[in-house]
Fold this protein.
Amino acid sequence: MLEGPTHVVGFSLGALVAQQLALTRPESVASLTLVSSVADRSAEERSAVAGRRRRAAEDFEASARATVERWFAPEWRVREPSRAEAVLGTLLATDRTSYLACYDVFATADAALWPRLPRIFAPTLAITGADDPGSTPEMTRRLAGQIPGARATVLPGARHLLPLERPGDLTRAILQHTGPQESPE
């Protein structure tokens, strides 16, 4: 239970959860930061996600490897191979049933949330990497456009895992968004 208004930051699937929280418990949300979120997927994007979900059910290891390929830019994998291996290890150690259940939410929640987003009134920042193939800059801009007063930020040269790939830039953006605001004089 949240004790009063809280700055809520959600990453990827967690960004969808954060949106639901802002809709169902608006009094608990002082601000909302949606990191690498999906929104208003096209039919083609929805089909691609459904295909990845099917592959995860059929061949979990191959799916996890493809996920790491999608999340990590080739230069980043070369520069920090142990980080990519650690993420792969985490994915492979995940309970398959739970993973697939979460994937079902990830694959469908944006459509269910989309028409309700104009009812979010917490100050909102939507942020993604310019090279994120799943949580695209276009999605981030649409998401910010659907929430009253929201802002979109796109970090150049980054993919999906902003907390790992660009922690300093992400932290600065969150602190700028959640910090004290200058009052007009």
Summary: The chain has a mean pLDDT of 94.
